[in-house]
Amino acid sequence: MPLAAEDLPFASGSENPGENATVIVAISHDHLDHFNFRTLKKLPENTRYYVPHGLEGKFPSRYANVIGMDWYTQNTIGDLTIHFLPANHGSGIYSHEQDQSLWGGWLFEWNDYRIYFAGDTGYSAVFKDIKSHIGEIDICLMPIAAWYWRHRHFAPEDAVQAAKDLSCSVFIPWGWGTWIMSYEHMIEPPRRLQYAWDQMQPENMELQMLKMGETYSSELKKPAIQTKNLGSHLFSD
Question: Where on the phi/psi map is residue 33: left (φ > 0), alpha (ψ -120 to 50), or beta?
């Protein structure tokens, strides 16, 4: 990964979030590239975890601040509202425990921004349903790799269509370039995304193809918010 857990400002202590601030980690599902205690144990003990319903039971008792959420539910911390939304994927690492917990994406509403992280997902009409429930999105963080199992992972053109369904203003791809977990070449996803973008020509939507480690600062005529490309996942500030 371009950035280790210890290098995150809130994990290393190099950036003090403030005495009353809350560090939040939202987990989309329990597959090991998204949920791994080797990483979580490196984060501050007071971290608040938002997880799909059923996954909270997998945390040891020393993790005292874990909130499990169902689809289309929300939780509020100060000025931040967090929504858990459905996706076309699944959960379970082993064959005997498939789909014992939920999976999905997250919507963060803060300071007039609506930022959506899709998690792992395939395409279906669920994105039109999400739009009918929550409205338009400012920034969409969309996976674009591992389409060998396409009903559970976007091909790049599926991600663009889902973003159109959600009326996204900014499209930021993730999920490629660090983990070798599929059959396509490591740099095929951004190439295919650019081709899909040129063919589909989504209106009123901006493509931000971040380089590894690059930070994007929004220009949506709102107070600044930043997103950093960590390769397989993204970190928002």
Answer: alpha
Q: Are 143 and 178 in contact (CB under 8 A)?
A: no
- Please state, in angstroms and as integers, the Cα–Cα distance from residue 236 to each residue in 63, 215, 230, following that order: 22, 9, 10
CB 42 within 8 A of CB 105: no
Terminal alpha carbon distance of the chain: 18
pLDDT at 134 over 80: yes
What is the domain extent for residue 58? 5-236
Closest CA to 4 of 12, 53, 173: 12
- Position 237 confidence tier, pLDDT thresholds 50, 70, 90: very low
Count of structural domains, the chain: 1
pLDDT over 90 at 227, yes or no: no
What is the arithmetic mean of pLDDT over 147-152? 93
